[in-house]
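Saturday, quiet lab. Running sequence design on the structure tokens for the scaffold JK sent over.
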């Protein structure tokens, strides 16, 4: 696994936190791999795949046109759950489920962030003493000049 992580440089490696996965997580983290994220499933494989099928069907999962592994992968996905193998289908559903969970937390764009920062600054009490000059304060002052809202 370490060789693959070094070859592809992933920012996140999902490992199911059950059975042998728990031990693998502990070993990899102790070896210094900090891209490891525990995946804790909340439903069985079949139900999890059903929840992400629309994501795949609507084109939100990219697959290359040509790859040495593509035929076997597509066969496993299309024969799931009655196929001989289900590891790739299971890891695909876990990754898509994790990604959907990740995207349910609100993410604000840059404009929204600056708007909220401006509102905080405007609501501060002017009688308070100025905070010490920090890098963040300098950047906010610079941005205030560029985007006065």
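Result came back. Writing it out in full:
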């Amino acid at each position: 696994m370490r060789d693959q992580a070094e070859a592809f440089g992933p920012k996140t490696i999902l490992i199911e936190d059950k059975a042998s996965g728990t031990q693998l997580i502990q070993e990899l983290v102790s070896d210094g791999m900090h891209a490891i994220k525990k995946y804790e499933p909340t439903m069985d494989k079949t139900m999890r795949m059903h929840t992400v099928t629309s994501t795949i069907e609507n084109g939100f999962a990219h697959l290359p046109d040509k790859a040495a592994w593509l035929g076997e992968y597509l066969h496993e996905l299309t024969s799931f759950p009655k196929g001989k193998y289900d590891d790739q289908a299971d890891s695909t559903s876990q990754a898509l489920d994790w990604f959907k969970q990740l995207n349910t937390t609100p993410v604000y764009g840059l404009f929204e962030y600056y708007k909220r920062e401006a509102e905080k600054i405007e609501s501060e009490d002017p009688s308070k003493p100025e905070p010490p000059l920090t890098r963040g304060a300098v950047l906010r002052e610079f941005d205030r000049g560029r985007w006065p809202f």
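Notes for JK: The chain has a mean pLDDT of 83. The radius of gyration is 23 Å. Ask whether to fix the surface positions before the next round.
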